[in-house]
Design goal:
Length: about 525
């Protein structure tokens, strides 16, 4: 039972984490168990913690000394003697009991080897003239397992006792045990009259069946009386506490099972939901990236880059072609531009599929959550809201990344252009030579060789340049797509994924809390 407090704490954390996920009607009985367990703040270990409360001269300290069999607490008759609370505890106290006494600030402790695992706290007199004494009494009362109110025949009906303590604390009636001490001062008729009057008064104040014990621990004459009855009553409290704790632990174990079932964690659905959403989000970002910077954009980027390389490295003819293409005449003829033109990505086929798949995933994941959490998620991510958010995500990504500009020209394209210029000059010289001298049958046709060599070499260089341009365009388009994909992913996570991720985090917190509760309950059960 030493770890029952830990199990109750774990249950409270699990109930808190389940709020908004588990339907209210399923969570209500589990919350009730947690609330009932925490209504009282007493020590939850095996040791019964009992407080001795009473007025000046009622015999509290004498009663404690009688229980101990030797003097533990000083005795006084006319003034408050117990100025500071004293704890009479087992010689080998439970760690939890030590923590409790530390929390209560009880530094005066005396060990015992009594057969009952009981800790008795001798409180300051409730009618003490010192305000701190009364404050100490009021602080300790809710923290102990039982309170023994020690009364005497002269002051059992004291107005301050009933008005300031018993009536306000009637909610703790089950924890109270009333001891009428010093009965040796009464005859039989007087004792009966006092007990009847005390029972009537307590009943009228909210104590329906007060447990009354009579004692005379320091009689003027004769042997002490009633001590065995008091010890038996404390023993009953011990057995009742063990029974209550066993039932409470069983209730916590059942609550753990209910939470697992009600939250769907028993089947491991929280991991499936997380994986399902992440997969759907990755697929959506990939398809949206294709709409903005897919194969058609890559093809256009290749063409633009090829034309750029040609204009830089194809020699005079290539430069002339580039000038004509950029001219008003070339544009009128519909020549291809030297940049990647903006595309209406939303008109491309595939957007509806992205929206449909995301909407179905949101429905699936939110249905797995259940309760208010699932309903809130579906309300936040309706199909219309999803479409608005997706459009805003893509436009935000495009704005952040910017347009797809042509690649930076390669340094050697200009060198090739210079070579092409030389080859063009050689080609022209060969043609002039051929035109002027012709070709004799017995001579080497150098003019033809010049013309053929220049043409072939120019063609090879042109082919290599165009291939290099296309490759540069592909690389440029791939880098652009990577940037677009990263930007779209960030935008989608912020605009669409945030509520889903928040819900998944809540579910993960619940899973961790329920797992910890199960671990704690299992550990306590094995002890």
């Amino acid at each position: 039972m030493a770890d029952l407090a830990r199990a109750l704490s774990a249950l409270a954390e699990a109930v808190d984490a389940a709020s908004g996920i588990v339907p209210a009607e399923d969570l209500a009985p589990i919350s009730q168990i947690a609330d009932q367990a925490h209504k009282r703040h007493g020590f939850l270990g095996d040791t019964v913690v009992v407080a001795l409360a009473g007025g000046t001269g009622s015999g509290k300290s004498s009663l404690l000394n009688a229980l101990a069999g030797h003097e533990v607490s000083g005795v006084g008759a006319v003034r408050p003697t117990t100025a500071e609370p004293l704890a009479w505890i087992p010689a080998n106290p439970e760690p939890g009991l030590v923590r409790l006494l530390d929390e209560l600030g009880l530094d005066r402790r005396v060990g015992h080897s009594h057969e009952l695992p009981v800790a008795v706290i001798d409180l300051p007199d409730y009618d003490s003239v010192e305000f701190e004494h009364r404050a100490t009494v009021e602080t300790l009362l809710p923290r102990v397992d039982a309170v023994i109110w020690v009364l005497d025949p002269q002051k059992y009906s004291d107005r301050a006792l009933h008005r300031d303590y018993l009536v306000p604390l009637a909610g703790y009636a089950d924890q109270f045990l009333f001891v009428l001490n010093q009965i040796d001062r009464l005859d039989e008729a007087g004792l009966t009259a006092v007990l009847d009057d005390l029972a009537r008064r307590l009943s009228s104040e909210g104590f329906a069946a007060p447990h009354l014990v009579t004692t005379a621990v320091r009689p003027v004459t004769g042997e002490p009386r009633g001590l065995d009855t008091l010890v038996a009553a404390i023993g009953e409290r011990f057995e009742a506490k063990r029974t209550a704790h066993a039932k409470l632990l069983a209730d916590v174990g059942r609550a753990h099972g209910w939470l697992e079932e009600a939250s769907g964690l028993a089947s491991g659905s929280e991991g499936a939901s997380m994986a399902h959403w992440e997969q759907a989000q990755r697929a959506a970002v990939d398809r949206l990236s294709d709409l903005v910077a897919g194969p058609s954009v890559a093809k256009q980027a290749e063409q633009v880059s090829e034309r750029l390389a040609t204009s830089r490295a194809a020699g005079p003819i290539g430069r002339l072609g580039a000038l004509l293409r950029r001219s008003r005449f070339g544009r009128a003829l519909g020549s291809a531009p030297d940049h990647v033109s903006a595309r209406q990505w939303w008109s491309q086929p595939g957007l509806e599929r992205v929206l449909g798949d995301l909407s179905r995933t949101v429905t699936d994941v939110s249905t797995g959550f259940g309760g208010d959490l699932g309903r809130t998620l579906r309300a936040d991510l309706t199909p219309a809201h999803l479409e608005t958010s997706i459009r805003a995500s893509v436009e935000g990504a495009r704005e952040a990344v910017g347009p797809l500009n042509p690649p930076a020209p390669r340094w050697w394209w200009g060198l090739v252009g210079a070579v092409q210029l030389v080859l063009f000059a050689v080609l022209v010289a060969g043609i002039v030579w051929l035109w002027v001298d012709g070709v004799d049958r017995d001579q080497v046709p150098w003019s033809l060789i010049m013309i053929g060599g220049a043409a072939v070499l120019a063609a090879v260089l042109g082919w290599g340049t165009r291939a290099s341009g296309r490759r540069a365009g592909r690389q440029n388009a791939a880098g652009y797509r990577s940037g677009i994909e990263a930007a779209i992913g960030e935008q989608v996570r912020e605009r669409v994924g945030a509520p889903v991720s928040s819900a998944l985090d809540q579910q993960a917190r619940l899973a961790a809390a329920v797992s910890e509760l199960g671990r704690v309950v299992s550990a306590v059960s094995l002890e």
